Amino acid sequence: MTLDMSYEAVMGRKNEIMKKAIGIDYTGFESGGISFDYERMMKEAGYSLEEIQDIQGETGVGNTPLLEMKNITALARKYAPKGKGARIFVKDEAANPSGSFKARRAATAVYHAKKHGYKGVIAATSGNYGAAVASQAAMHGLECIIIQECYDSRMIGQPEILEKQRACEAYGAEVVQLTVGPELFYTFLCLLEETGYFNASLYTPFGIAGVETLGYEIAQQFRDRIGSDPDAVVVTNAGGGNLTGTARGLIKAKSEGTRIIGASVDLSGLHMASDHDFNRKSFTTGHTGFGIPFATWPDRADVPRNAARPLRYMDRYLLVKQGEVFYMTEALAVLEGLERGPAGNTSLTAAFVLAQEMDMDQTIVVQETEYTGAGKHPMPQISFAKQNGVEVLFGDPDSEVPGKNIVFPDDPGSIKLREFDLEKARRSYIRNSVAKCGVTGEVSAEDVSFLAAETKTDEGFVRSVLANL
Amino acid sequence: MEQARKGDWVQVRQTVLTPEGRAPQVPDDTKKTPLLLWVKGFAQSDGKIGDDITVETMTGRKVTGELCAIDPRYVHDFGDFVPEFLKVDVQLKKLMKGEVAR
C-alpha cells in the first residue's frame, strides 16, 4: 500500500512517526492536565551525569578550557563605578570536536540512537547542532541527514547557514535545504518515515542532559582554580536547552548560589517565517525570535514534551543588540586573541555590562564560545547585511532597528543591557499552558504546583495570574 | 558545465508545496512563494540543467528533481572587507594601550 504523502496526511501521522523515531513513550509522564512529571522524565528517559561524562569522553566532547578574560575585564572596569567590575571568564566550548557546545547534546543523542539500533539520525537545524550531529554520526558510523531552513525564495542564503551546510557535508552527512517556512516540519516527518532514522531532536531528555556536564564542569573548574562557585553564569538563550542543561548541571554540582542569566540578541520586529525578513537578520540563533517563544511555550518543539524549560531556571533575562555583539566579537579577538563566532558572543556582550554592576571580587562565566570561519564570521555577516540593504553605522545602540540597521556602539561605554521582564514571560507561559492544554474549569492543585515550578515562582503567584486570565 | 553525466555529483531542486498549499500560519510574503527543497547526490542518468533527473544522496535515498548545479561549489566566503571593524579594532587597542592586564 502506498502512503498518502499529502501535507495533511503526513501531519496527521505525526504522533505515530514521532513515537517510532524517538522511542520514548511520553504518555507515561503525563498527568492528563497541564502538568507532567519533568524530573521523572529526565531521570528515566535520560542518562545520569556520570554516564554522560563517559559517553562524551569517548568522543572527546567536554572538558573544555575555562579562560579568564583579563583584558576585557580591565576594559569593563574603565566604565564601572569604583569597586565594581567583576572578573569575566569564558568556557571555550569552541574546543569541542564540532566547534560548539552542541557536541554535548549530539553526543548523547547519537549514542542513544546507536544503542537502540537505529541506522541513522535526522536533525532539523540550520545551526551548530547540525554539524555536531553530523560529527557524532561520523564517529559512530551512522547515516545522517540534516534539514536546514536555508534560503529565501531567490535561493539566497545566510552565509552562516551555508557554512553549516559545508561543515555537515564535510562530516559525510546529507543536507536537505529548504526555503523559509514552518512546513520544514512536514519534510522532517516525511524523511523520518522514509528512512526509519532516529529523530536527534535538540529537545529530548538526553539531549538536554548532555548539557548538564557543561554546568557541572564550570562549578568544578571554578572550585579548583578560584576556590569558590561563580556568582553568575550568562547563557546565550535561543531554544532554552543551553540554559536548562547548564543550570541543571550547576545544581547537580550543588552550586545553588550561582545566578543563571539568559541573554539574547534583540531581533524584535523581524518575523522569523518571513521570506523578506529572513536575510535581514545577522544572527541565525541566540536571538529573541527563538528565545521568547520557546521560553513562554516550550512545547512547540519537535517532541511531545520539551526537556528544555528555561523559565524553571532563569533568574534574569537580558537583551543586547546585534551591533553590540559584533563589537564584543572584535574585542574578544583584538584584546584576548580569541577569534570566535559571533552568535556565541551574545552572552559575552551581556557579561561585559553585567560586570560593571557587580563587585570587583565577584565572578561571571560566559558559558560558551563557538568556532568561526568563512561564512560564520563577523565580516561575511556584516557584508551580507549591507548587500541586503541593512545600513551599518556607529552611534547609540538603542537606535538599532533589526532589519533596517546595525549600530556599532560609538564607544564600549555605550553598550547596555535591556531587561526583559521575566514576570511578563512567566504570566505569558501560564496563559499559554492553560490555553494549549484546553483547561476550561478550575486548574487543579497539582497543576498549580507544576506551574510554580515551571516559572520559578510560588503557588500564590500562579493563582494570582490564573485569577486574572 | 551544463551537462551532467551519470555518476556526477549534482544538486536538484524540488517544489515541496505550491503557494496555494502553504500552511495557514505562514506570513503573507512567504505565502506568495512555493516551499522549495534542494539536495545533492550522484546523478543516476545524464541530464542538462533544468532537466528532471534522479540522484542518489549520501544516505542512499533516491530523489528526483530539477537539475540545478553540477559539482556545486560553496559560495560563502569571508565577504567584502568591512572597514567598520577596523575602526573598532583601532579604538579598542587605543583604549587599552599600555593597560593590558597580563
From TrEMBL, chain A:
Signal sequence, renumbered to the chain: none
Pfam families the record matches: PALP (PF00291)
SUPFAM superfamilies documented for this protein: Tryptophan synthase beta subunit-like PLP-dependent enzymes
Keywords: Lyase, Pyridoxal phosphate
Chain ranges of the Tryptophan synthase beta chain-like PALP domain: 59-366
InterPro entries in the cross-refs: AKP_thiolase_beta, Cys_Synth/Cystath_Beta-Synth, TrpB-like_PALP, TrpB-like_PALP_sf
Coiled coil: none
Domain of life: Bacteria
GO molecular function, one term: lyase activity
Cofactor requirement: pyridoxal 5'-phosphate
Name of the featured protein: PLP-dependent lyase/thiolase
Organism lineage: Bacteria, Thermotogati, Synergistota, Synergistia, Synergistales
UniProtKB/TrEMBL annotation, chain B:
InterPro entries: OrtA
Superkingdom field: Bacteria
Pfam families in UniProt: OrtA
Stated name of the protein: 2-amino-4-ketopentanoate thiolase
Organism, scientific name: Dethiosulfovibrio peptidovorans DSM 11002
